[in-house]
């Protein structure tokens, strides 16, 4: 503190503070790539789209997994799902906000949750677990650092508003998905009606009572008008076993537990994508520290 006061009096304190800078010019590597593209266009040659590197001296891609080679102790046995299909930019600013981590401490500074602290800063994505009614177009896939599942960025066809949902399997970019949390609308003369095959598709959301028995579902709510609370992690799903006359439904979870849930609660058809998440191998302790996990010392001699 005294040193800072002396620097302020000398007028050199502000010179030592480095302001946040942004890259104003593209990198030399990017300039070389763009120059090569312009040259190929000028010569009338085909410009191939960018293809991800499937193998080099550091890693090898097999299926949907990237396996790292033993070039260092930290890369030995390291593996994680590929991310070539995910959006490489930042999240939508209106649908995200910054989060201040607690490091596992309470308001008194005492550790209330063990093995937490540090890690890279994250932005919390606002996810539509209530599934607003309407038709939506899939814009892109996105990564979420706060969960194992991936996200879909949707655009509402009627209002052009954006929203995030958990990404189901077998939902393509540009596809139209529908949400009917208050029941399937009745037929209106003069308007196009949805066929049953169009409705029972992955990504569409209904009240549980409107879903055929035996369908695989995820993002399941527990009460009418409530948010999705079950089967939201990567690769998870449940099966609708039966419905009862008093308005309840029996659902078998991944743990083989059968639960009785309100038939008016929301559920999404299909399974959560990124099922390869369970095959991830962090490779080294530093990878876990970057995720905000501290060592778990058990005190065993």
From TrEMBL:
Record-annotated Large ribosomal subunit protein uL2 RNA-binding domain positions: 104-179
Protein's name in the database: Ribosomal protein L2
NCBIfam families attached to this UniProt entry: rplB_bact
The UniProt record lists the keyword Ribosomal protein: yes
Family of this protein: Belongs to the universal ribosomal protein uL2 family.
GO molecular function terms listed in the Swiss-Prot or TrEMBL record: RNA binding; structural constituent of ribosome; transferase activity
Annotated Large ribosomal subunit protein uL2 C-terminal domain residues: 200-301
Keyword terms, alphabetized: Ribonucleoprotein, Ribosomal protein
GO biological process, one term: mitochondrial translation
Family annotation (InterPro entries): NA-bd_OB-fold, Rib_uL2_dom2, Ribosomal_uL2, Ribosomal_uL2_bac/org-type, Ribosomal_uL2_C, Ribosomal_uL2_RNA-bd_dom, Translation_prot_SH3-like_sf
Assigned GO CC terms: mitochondrial large ribosomal subunit
Pfam families with a match to the protein in the record: Ribosomal_L2_C, Ribosomal_L2_N
């Amino acid at each position: 503190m005294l040193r800072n006061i002396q620097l302020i009096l000398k007028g050199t304190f502000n010179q030592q503070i480095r302001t946040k800078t942004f890259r104003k010019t593209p990198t030399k590597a990017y300039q070389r790539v763009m120059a090569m593209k312009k040259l190929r266009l000028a010569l009338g040659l085909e410009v191939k789209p960018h293809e991800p590197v499937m193998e080099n001296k550091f890693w090898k891609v097999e299926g949907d997994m990237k396996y790292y080679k033993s070039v260092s102790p930290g890369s030995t046995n390291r593996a994680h799902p590929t991310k070539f299909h995910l959006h490489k930019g930042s999240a939508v600013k209106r649908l995200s906000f910054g989060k201040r981590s607690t490091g596992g401490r309470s308001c008194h500074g005492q550790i209330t949750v063990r093995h937490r602290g540090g890690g890279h800063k994250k932005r919390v994505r606002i996810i539509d677990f209530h599934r607003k009614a309407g038709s939506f177009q899939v814009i892109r896939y996105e990564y979420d650092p706060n969960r194992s599942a991936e996200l879909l960025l949707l655009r509402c066809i009627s209002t052009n508003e954006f929203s995030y949902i958990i990404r189901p399997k077998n939902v393509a970019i540009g596809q139209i998905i529908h949400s009917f949390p208050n029941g399937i609308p009745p037929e209106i003369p003069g308007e196009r009606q949805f066929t049953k095959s169009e409705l029972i598709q992955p990504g569409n959301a209904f009240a549980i009572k409107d879903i055929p028995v035996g369908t695989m579902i995820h993002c399941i709510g527990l009460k009418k008008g409530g948010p999705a609370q079950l089967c939201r992690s990567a690769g998870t799903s449940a099966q609708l076993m039966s419905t009862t006359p008093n308005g309840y439904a029996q659902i078998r979870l991944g743990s083989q537990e059968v639960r009785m849930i309100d038939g008016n609660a929301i559920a999404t058809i299909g399974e959560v994508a990124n099922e390869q998440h369970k095959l991830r191998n962090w490779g080294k302790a530093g990878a876990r520290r970057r995720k905000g996990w501290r060592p778990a010392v058990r005190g065993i001699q």
